[in-house]
Fold:
Amino acid sequence: MPDHLDPAPDALRPRWTRALEGSRSPGGPDPTPYADNLLTRWQEPQRRYHTLTHLTAVLDHIDVLEKHADTPDLVRLAAWFHDAVYLPNRSENEERSAHLAERALPEAGLTAPDTAEVARLVRLTVTHAPADDDRNGQVLCDADLAILAAPAPAYADYTKAVREEYAFVPAEAFREGRAAILRQLLDLPRLFRTPYGEREWEQRARENLRTELTQLGSAPG
Structure:
């Protein structure tokens, strides 16, 4: 597990409320139960990387990138839901997270079109491949991938936490699978789609990916 504590849920609850209130008409249901349900999910014991620390980082990065989004509060809601369902040994986490958003958000007061947009954004995190005119998608995907551009110690914490989430995978199989993912990322013409992400994160992210790929080739497991 990374050598730091996750943020306190109380620090995140107001951020949920602001995003929800910014996306719905006044007078909707109390936001707190919805926040508490999501916060409980983000603190499940099987998580090592996909924790409140990751959620906070994605929200912080959306704050940096918000001018590039069409509806930044919907992007923030998508961040809350994008890993709300997370089991490392399952492949349908994003789809199940999108379904959760489709059930919860209309009850919380969002319109059908806005709910559909949040669910679409959640599903986009399967590929992290937003269209050139998908400003909301570009912001969410860049915010989610920004960890790739972290300073070396934080990136090392990230890779350690990912390995811990996949502790059930044998070392050799993990190395092969992780290396394939890193090569796929390095083969992309652009990791980041917003002007800010491309300018500030692209080069450092590629350096981190190349370093990890080299380490995977020589590490014993």
About this structure: The chain has a mean pLDDT of 94. Residues 148-218 form one domain. The two ends are 17 Å apart (CA to CA). The chain has two domains: 9-146, 148-218.
